[in-house]
Amino acid sequence: MTTQAAALDRGGMDATEVGMGVYNMKLGMWVFLLSEVMFFTSLIGGYIILRGAHPDMFAQPGVVLNVPLTAFNTFLLICSSVTMVLAFAGIERGDQAKLKMWLIATAVIGMAFLGVQVYEYIQLSGHGFVPTVEGYRAEGAPLYGTTFYTMTGFHGFHVLMGVLALWYLVIQAFRGKYTAGSHGAVEITGLYWHFVDLVWIILFTIVYLI
Amino acid sequence: MEHAAAHTGGASIKAYMVVFGTLAVLTVIEVLIPLRFGFPKNVQVILLVFLALWKALLVALYYMHLRYEPQRLKWMVIAPLPLAVILVMAVLTEF
Q1: Residue B34 and residue A53: Cβ atoms within 8 Å?
Q2: pLDDT tens, chain B, 95 aa long
Q3: Cβ of B77 and A30 within 8 Å?
Q4: Which residue among A33, A158, B59, B78 is least crowded, i.e. fewest CB within 10 A of its CB?
Q5: Other CB atoms within 10 A of residue A35 CB
Q6: Chain-chain contact of B48 with A209 (C-beta, under 8 angstroms)
């Protein structure tokens, strides 16, 4: 099997984009993710610009935000990435049990990430750090609350969509939908999930550590 | 299918676990840089950005299997990155 044929075969799809050497669903996911790069770049770029222009309005790492808690959350997301690739590796070998086990693990860890994020929001809002005009002024940090909740909130929304997609995969896996020769949905959902992890790696550094 | 699997990940389970361990260690180092090490702020920023980009690259290359994708797809993925930089620089200039 040629390299290109192998790439096309991976999804078990009829429709293929021969020019790019991958099946259409996968190409579509990559195009979508690249649009997401621009989306998150806009958010991060806006944050950098506002922070650069008003450095006194943004707190230093660990002053307002709980860095150890979020570092734990980052670790959770990294764990979910490895469970996702293990699910993918499992179904590539036709191992249904591993596919189901690792997909469930990924979805559960994703939910744990969201749970920690909700807990963080509750803690922060309890201390007056909220994304409203009066709220963020109460912290003495105009713009900080708004940019923080916008970036982390949009990322959290992406995680939520990923978790929903993962549970859908779990249901389909229990129905025996995926095989070693046909598991494109697992691969493209994995691409999305890893991208969400990748974005968080950048956000964690920029929002929490710098 | 064996050939396809080898192409897909390059990706042995061992490789996945090595990347996982690297990501975990780099995350610990990242957290320690602002909280424990007394580097000047600009040195901190450079180190943290470098580590974040390194981690992001590992995820893209190994977990998203970009390393093993056809060359044209790699170029397609790389293409918007300079545009993202231009976007930020352009807005910075206007601000």
Answers
A1: no
A2: 333 444 445 568 899 999 999 999 999 999 998 877 778 888 998 999 999 999 999 999 999 999 988 888 899 888 888 888 887 788 777 66
A3: yes
A4: B78
A5: 10
A6: yes
Nearest one of A194, A46, A175 to B9, comparing CA atoms: A194
Residue A75 contacts B, CB cutoff 8 Å: yes
Residue A67 to residue A73: CA distance in whole angstroms? 10
Q: From chain B, pick out residues whose CB is under 8 angstroms from the CB of A79.
A: 20
Q: Find which of B16, B32, B33, B42 to mutate to test the A interface (most A CBs within 10 Å of its CB).
A: B16
Which residue do the tokens 């979910």 mark?
A80
Q: State pTM to two decimals.
A: 0.88
| CB distance B16 to A86 below 8 Å | yes
Kindly state whether A55 is in contact with chain B, defined as any CB-CB distance less than 8 angstroms.
no
